[in-house]
Amino acid sequence: MLFSILFLIVGFILLVVGAELLVRGASRIALAFGISPLVVGLT
User: Fold this and answer.
1) Which one-letter DSSP state was computed for residue 36?
2) Model-level pTM greater than 0.70?
3) How far apart (Å, rounded) are the C-alpha atoms in residues 16 and 23?
4) Half-sphere exposure (CA, 13 Å, Cβ side) for 7?
5) Which one of 1, 22, 31, 34 is most buried, by most CB atoms within 10 A?
């Protein structure tokens, strides 16, 4: 039971970190292609 809760917490943390990396990477790529920061922020 303890391992299940631990894995759940670790999985949630990894999910949040992965999502943050995905968003930051996508915004950098969009800015590199010359897309307006306003458009990047709104989407």
Assistant:
1) -
2) yes
3) 11
4) 4
5) 31
Residue that the structure tokens 């010359």 belong to: 34
Are 27 and 40 spatial neighbours (Cβ–Cβ below 8 Å)?
yes
Name the domain count of the chain.
1
Residue type (1 letter), 5: I
| Maximal CA-CA distance, the chain | 50
User: pLDDT digits over 1-43, tens only?
Assistant: 999 999 999 999 999 999 999 999 999 999 999 999 999 888 7
Query: Which of the 8 DSSP states describes residue 25?
Result: H
CB-based burial, 17-36: b 16+ in 10 Å, e otherwise: eeeeeeeeeeeeebeeeeee
Residue type, 41: G
